[in-house]
Amino acid sequence: MIDKRVSDLATAVAPIFDGAVIMVGGFGTSGIPFGLLAALLDHGTRDLTIIANNAGTGEDALALLLRENRVSRVICSYPRSPGSVWFEKRYEEGLIELEVVPQGTLAERIRAAGSGIGGFFTPTAYGTLLAEGKETRVIDGVGYVFEKPLPADFALIRAEQADRWGNLRYHATARNFNPVMAMAAKHTIAEVRILADEPLEPESVITPGIFVNSVVEFGVRP
Amino acid sequence: MKPLDENGMAARLAQDIPDGAYVNLGIGLPNRVAHFVPAGREVMYHTENGLLGVGPVPRTEQEDPELINASKKLVTMVPGASLFDHTLSFAMMRGNHLSIAVLGAYQVAENGDLANWATLEQNFPPAVGGAMDLVAGVPQIYALMRHNSRDGAPKVLKRCTYPLTGAGVLTRVYTDLCVLEVTPEGFKLIDLAEGNSLEEVQAVTEARILT
User: Fold this and answer.
1) Is B38 an 8 Å CB contact of chain A?
2) Domain annotation covers residue A19
3) What ipTM was assigned to the predicted interfaces of this complex?
4) In angstroms, rounded to a whole number, what is the distance separating the alpha carbons of residues A214 and A164?
């Protein structure tokens, strides 16, 4: 029998270890697994690498991981947003290594990792500082930059609804990075608003359960 | 000098958004362009976080905290809207599917270079977001910006001094003083904001303005 349901957030994040590379879904405040991040804070692991679009705002759970010095490296497209005070403070103190990746390249590197692709040539960032030190190639007159896949040990994602098989569907713009991150981690944990007893309608499944290791209900919609 | 205010700048640019266009509006001032598109035109607005068909700001009872735009502001969806994940959203950009992107800018140059993601300040963490993906794949890139910075420093330049977002990617520049087309020869004047002369505008512009 396949049953990916776990009873609580703490159980869901228990496999996470010190030094882990962790993808965190979401964009702005939408689609962020705040329950799992709060459980990760309680879990106490350190020296984490966080792969996410943003680097937390105010005192949200991602910002608190930075405040508590649990994060040593951030791979991110837009770390500086209004209210990203803890990221900016730790960055200025030199406590965080930052890799800035263009947003589409971030998504595609994650997709490559989840799809068994060994890298790709993208026109994004060609001729800029973010292409320095990378292989480039001109193909049919257009300049491209070679980008490598970006895998992770864990993905913490948020969805609207799941069934026991780990199939997921999303709500509005809370989808964002969540489906692609689910594919790219060795162990994907999904926090969902509704954990359904019945299987999801197959036509409505956005993330097939094969990409998901565990699902946990967290009813709050932030 | 009679500079346009921010609404005036957004309204001027909106005149040039054609019916049926698929348009990405950058965060900040570019977002305001949507309010001024002339009646009778249907424009589909794309937001990088996975929505094509961005509608106006919601009334209180319509608010959905998980329905936001790239500026992280609450939005609605228009009829015909669609939702998708980040890989599809950025395929729309890089794959030449959008018509126009309107972006803010720190600096623009007469060779079409755009700088809008990093300054030269060491402690200021850079944040690129989707800007480099947009300029890589959207055929029409419009910069919407003040002609000069608040302290008077020129932003319409011969060459950018800040790190580039993209080289030679701009098609047009809309400022509070004029509209410029980027041509192989340099900036060519399209029009001036009402009440300003070319001589006055040229005097506060580092780049040469061709007519």
Assistant:
1) no
2) yes
3) 0.95
4) 9
